[in-house]
Design brief:
single chain, 1218 residues, mainly beta, Immunoglobulin-like, 12 domains, five-stranded antiparallel β-sheet, 2 helices, 2% helix
Length: 1218
Amino acid sequence: MFPRIKTLIAAACLLAAAVSARATNLAPYTSATSTGSANFAWSAGAGGPYTAVISDTNTFITYISSNNNVASTSIGYPGLVKDVTYYFKVRRTAELESEYAQTSTATWASAPSGIFSAPVFFSAYAPYSATASIGWNVNGNPEWTNYELAFADNASFTGQTVRQYISPHGAPLAVGGLDANSVYYFKVRTRAASGTISAYTPYISTATLSIVPDNIAGSVFESSAAVSWVPVDGTGAESSEGYRLIVSTSELLDPLVINWSTPDDTLASTATAAGSLNRNTTYYYKMGSLNVAGEPNYDEMRYFTTLAAKPANLARLAMTDAEATLGWTALPPGAGSNSALGYRLEASTTNFNGTGVLHSSVSYGVALSTLTITTLEANTTYYLRTSSLNLAYNPNHTASVSSITLALPLDPHPSLTAVYPDAQYMLIDFTPLEVTPQAFSCQGYRVEATTGTFGGTAPVFSSTTYDNQAEFLRIEGLAPNNVYQLRIATLNWERTPNYTSLTSTRTHIPGYLQNVTLDHVWSSSAVVSFDSGIANEGHVAQASPDRFFESQNITVTTPNTAATTMNIIGLDPNTTYYYRVGALYNGATVYTNTTPDMRQTLPVRVTGVNVSSVFYSSVTASWTPLSQASQLLDANSYLLEVAATPAFSTVLSSSRTFEIPLGSLTISGLAPNTTYYFRHGSVNEQGYANYTAVHSTATLANPPTPQAFGLTPASINLTWLANSNPADTLYYVEMADNPGYAPAEVSSTTALSSATFSGLAPNTIYYSRVTAINRMQRRTPVVNFSPMATGAHHPAAAATTGVGVTGLTANWTEGGNTPLITSYQAQISSSSDFSGLMLSSVTKNLYASFEGLVSDASYYLRVSALNLSGVPTDPPVSLGNALTLPATAYILPWQDTFSGLLTDGFTLNWASNGNSSHTVYQVQASTAPDFSVINSSIAAQGLACSFADLQVYTTYWVRLRAMGQSGVLSAFEEAGSTRTLLSSQMNVSAQLNNLITLETSYGTISVLVPRGAIGGATRLTIMPSTFTLPGPQSAVAELTPTGIGLIVNYFPPTLVLNTITITLPYRIADLPAAMQSDRSKLILALYDEVHGIWVPLPSVSDTANNQVIAQTWHLSTFQIMQTQPAAALSNVKIYPNPYRPNSVSDVMHFINMPPLAKVKIYTFVGELVREIRADVNGMAHWDGLNDAGRKVASGVYIAFIQSRDKRSQKSFKVAIER
């Protein structure tokens, strides 16, 4: 580096250090500010001159003014912009640029003025979202200036709303969220960028618009109109002050034709006066509601066009099956209000009620006076009207007229309508119209014929039917062989005809035969029948295998003019022929085919017929098959038929085969031993048979089905089932003492289903068999029955011996049976009909012993002798009945012997030791172990008994013995001893629901301690009182004692925080006699040991279960007592009063009231807090809650008490302290 440069750098550094050392903080500040100027000052420092700079940016990139020769310590800047933040900096001119000190300030904004409203921009589409338009003069403020607009519904601006806006030019701003139809007050001020605010402008007031009515609609007539809407008749923002309607023929609504208003906000419509508007003219209108200032809030502009004048002199000109033409007097042409745009003709089947199809025809030529509708349905009643059309194409209808279109015409095409002439009549066959719908149907038909022209002088023959589904009409009385002009018509509902011309037709030459039928066809001939022809010269009949009768015709004739039948002979068998008959007229004829027109002759009969096989349910027949050498010796099939009579009036079954070489057929499913008739037929292709002579046979009888034998010592009765055989079937029955039947000892032939053989040896085995015989004496295979012995003799009854506790011996004598050979079956049962448990013994002795029987039970005995086949004599011989002896009861272990311990009783249990359920036990209880005193004795039938009404907490010894059904007694068995209960104890937890009980013979004593009812855990003891209770002194009620009490003790002590429920049962007999008839007034009372009085508790007398249930907040001595409800309200007692629900207390009691009195608790301002009703004892209580279950506040309340009959009432002050 050059030496000079180094020197310059060092000098510069020293100079900078010197300047920095002399730099001064001038601490500038704003000394004054206005809407267009700002003044700044600073400390002198080391002295001037000074450089001062002002800018509207904090970076000073650009500046408004910069002066480097300011001599003083202050400077002012006029002509500044309003409401702008300005930045100022200053330094000593001699100092560096970095030594500037700076500050900032903002010019003020001008206060606004001239606040105004712009109602033209007001809107209200919903009750609480109306909009007002407010503007003001900005007085030169820049466009970014903030304004605070305050508004309220009162001039004091109480509860005002303030919103900030930026309004560059003071143009009206929309203020939304306002209530419709309400007066608002507005004022505005500026809030400058510096935070300074101007004073508010004077306020202005304006009214928001009311909401626009909904559903605005117009109804238009010829010279008047009506407008309707939904009234805006609510309150506040949902109200209006009336309505305004303006009407004009100009879209600009100027001039107005109608300017109507009303102050009635409930009005829902208005109508212009008749004649106030011109016909066929378009009108524009607006409808709106009025606010409190009378300003309307119009809905969008609407318009309507009045109707043109109705056409006059409407007349029906023509009706066809599809068209209607009407005429009227045309309206004058031109564009005036008396003219129209055109006309519309309409037709409806429902008289224009809005349903159905509407047919119409339109013309826009006002001079036209007729229109035709071409789309109508036939045979239909139509209502017709014409309408003039206004400029909006809206119709003005005339009154309707009705008319019926013609029915559809019939189609004359030969495929649909045909004429069938005869000699003296014509039959016109046609396809009828549909039944439905009506437009495609008709009321009937008419056909007409004439030899001239219709409308001329020649007679007209006709035929009419009102059956719309008829398919033909017949015109009678016509002349033969004449040409007739024909036409046919459909009839509509007015029976007006719609004609269709038919082709002219000539009547026939007489001779057509009627009722020509083919009656019979055999293998070589046929018979036809017919009605004789008119004026005939004879008859001719033909048969031909050619359906057109062009060859091989077989013809027969007769000159008999009255003939009705003809026989055609010389036909080939099994050949198809066509048949026809005609009447002869001067050698010519017109044939008529027979009905049916063809039939195949029968095949030749089969020969060599025979019944080849007969079975139980089927028969097979045979014959010599046809040779099939030609069609004449062939057939389509063979048929075998069976019937119950030779006349074959009913065919029972049949069998068919198409195998012509086959020579037999079988018919199955026949009944056994039944006579059937059979015939054989050779069948042609049309199913007609040529039958042989009838023959008959009988099926075989079914083998009988063996049934049970009937036995005596000297006879056997065989029985069997017929197995579907008829009643006349014979059976051959055989019996022998050897299986080879050599020889049979006895036999019998019978038509019955049983046979009895007598004189047989007793108890001896015999063999038997049966053979069935059918009506033709043919036998079926033999049926062998099982070998069976004759019956043994009945034994004789003897006395029963050895009757003990669990067994006995039955006895009998031989009764004619062989000793030591005959077996006996002895039975014993606990049921007289032996349907229950039964024991059986088979022996050759004359006795049977039975063990393991139930003690003290009746048993029935019987005996039968068994034959060599093991069949017992029937019925068995009764040996009478016997009763076993009773057994001593079985004593259970002590823990099972005694159960159900009570304060005054217990239950004894034992086992039967084999005794029956009929055994009675005598049970005794004693307070002495030697039973010198019997305190209670019970006869029980069962295995348990319960003692009651014993002494409390006393030891009892028990013994029992059994007594049989015959009165026999067993010895006593001692069951031990037990002690009745004194009390019941339970550890009670404050966190659980606790129920402590003590059982008695007359109910359960219980104390229910709910969760949270006590302050801490304790041990609770309950016991019935066994001493004389204190006298019935009470400070609040008249009480009568019963002596039935309960003592409740607990340790360690604890607080009672909530209600405890006590249930105390009683015996009616323990109550004083005066209380036994009416127990509804029984209550439970608590003994107050401190004051020596009884306090009645809220109680319920459960007379159905003989118990009293009460709620208490204290545990002590309790007694069932009777209270006497007051007859009046003079001695009402209320305690405690004041009531402290948060203290350890119970409830506020109301006593000494009439039964079922009503208590209403009110606040001092008359608000109902709680309603309660007294019980039958005149007692009620209040727990400090209202009817909603919420706690009431501390304070004084009024208790209004009223008797049930509402004849007496009284008010009391009660207090709640929490």
